[in-house]
Amino acid sequence: MLLYMNPIKSKCLFSMTTLINYVRTIFGEHIPYEIIQIIIMMYFELINVLISCGTKHTILVKQNELYVWGDNFYGQLGLGNIINYNTPQKINLRNIIKASCGSHNTMAITKDNSSYSWGNNNNDQIDSSNNDYYSVPQKNNLNHYMSICHSRHHTMALTRSNELYAWGSGSYGQLGLGNNYAYKIPQKVDLDNIKSVACGRYYTITITINNELYVWGDSSYGKLGLDDDIIHRSPQKIN
Predict the structure, then answer these.
(1) DSSP three-state, residue 23
(2) Which CATH number is associated with domain 57-238?
């Protein structure tokens, strides 16, 4: 198969098969053929791809379709089983526009603004049921959220009006609610105008519309950037 590259980047014709084989000789034969192909197409800006990694699993969104592989102990691949996969598997969920990994769970948002989560639920990160995990995508009642991030123990969700909600375990103050309680339903964090949020194992980081950085949770190893190693149960601004 021949691909014509963007003339700004290249005026040459490449054989995709030859190029893939060459790249695999550099990185190793263990890397799946499909992954090398996607990397090459991303480099030449032929496709838009989103990639996210959990502790032991990886997801990839290409042309609004979701591919998953890696560890599946908690059903975080969403394939209806708990079998590990060493190569990308296409998940039965269409029209994906966003997706991200927690430590042992996964979330996705579709074009119709529906949100789905699956994987580890032992701290009610997905819902307040008694299920320890979900191996197939669960539709959330969270259609007003534009992004959701999971950690191993908690979940943060950002609304289209830039409000932030938290639930799950708060044992290290990672919910930012001023305590270390656990919550089974979303709780609003007292912080407005948020444009981006990310979860660590026991901490959370956000960026506001004004590009201000706030952090909270476990500060061990200095990972919050606050020059301490204590627990912060409410948002702290980094200057």
Answers:
(1) helix
(2) 2.130.10.30
Q: Report residue 193 as tokens.
A: 């105008």
Q: Are 232 and 220 in contact (CB under 8 A)?
A: no
CB 165 within 8 A of CB 189: yes
Per-residue DSSP letter, 220? G
Sign of the CA dihedral with 175 first, then 178, 179, and 185 last: negative
Task: Answer yes or no: are the C-beta atoms of 176 and 189 closer than 8 Å.
Answer: yes
**CA separation for the pair 139, 114 (Å, rounded):** 7
Query: What is the Cα–Cα distance from 112 to 70, expressed in whole angstroms?
Result: 28
The pTM for the full model equals 0.70
According to DSSP, the residues that pair with 58 across neighbouring strands are: 53, 69
Q: What is the largest CA-CA distance in the chain?
A: 60
- Among 9-13, 81-85, 134-138, the minimum mean pLDDT is found in 9-13
Contact 69, 53 (CB under 8 A): no
pLDDT tens sequence across 45-73: 556 778 888 888 999 898 899 999 999 99
DSSP letter assigned to residue 200: -
Query: How far from each other are the two terminal CA atoms of the chain, in whole angstroms?
Result: 52
- Domain positions in the chain are 1-47, 57-238
Q: How many CB atoms sit inside 10 A of residue 215's CB?
A: 21
